[in-house]
């Protein structure tokens, strides 16, 4: 695929990693998403590494619950990553416009994403490092898929990551404290994401806007205070409550792995 094969329809998303546009393939009329990453954003080795990491991760993936890459090309100083178009937006969009998710729908989406995360960890040896509602894409077939691998890290054998990258408020306690981390750091972010969709707000935020934490206070709370719970605020099943609790274990050695998620009775 190249720029000559596509008709650009318009912008559908923006972020620090680049601009995502909706495009139509001229020959097939298929709707595609094109992520445009300006090389000017990669002025140092870290920036270039992020681009290469995302290209490599999506190219190697063959999991149905990781957004599908259809190729990449260079045009006018930018790398363009062509992906399947997920027309229902993100989990964040769904929560914002439709409100908190019902438990059954959330369990179905969680099962797909747990499969994707398990594949990422075991087949590609990659830590995502930025799982959050806006990095989970949805389509009208009811599928949920992991996306945005620009800050992902590769683990070899028993190594651990040390880089402080990603969205800080979704980081696990060990990451906030600057400690080394591994795949279980993704599980924390994933459990927090699932909990946010159930509550309809970020779990560490109070329903009362006036009582919400400042950024630095929030990080202190994540590290030092008890983790948030679904019950008794929500009338959810014991299995769902347990699933979230196992994912939000502050001790990474006691946190469940993606394979434990797949086998959990909630999903």
TrEMBL record:
It is an enzyme of class 2 (transferase). Residues 6-267 form the Protein kinase domain. Its EC number is 2.7.12.2. Keywords: ATP-binding, Kinase, Nucleotide-binding, Serine/threonine-protein kinase, Transferase. ATP binds at residue 35. Pfam families: Pkinase. SUPFAM superfamilies: Protein kinase-like (PK-like). InterPro entries: Kinase-like_dom_sf, Prot_kinase_dom, Protein_kinase_ATP_BS, Ser/Thr_kinase_AS. CDD domains: PKc_MAPKK_plant_like. One of its GO terms (molecular function) is protein serine/threonine kinase activity. SMART domains: S_TKc. Belongs to the protein kinase superfamily. STE Ser/Thr protein kinase family. MAP kinase kinase subfamily. This is mitogen-activated protein kinase kinase. It comes from Ostreococcus lucimarinus (strain CCE9901).
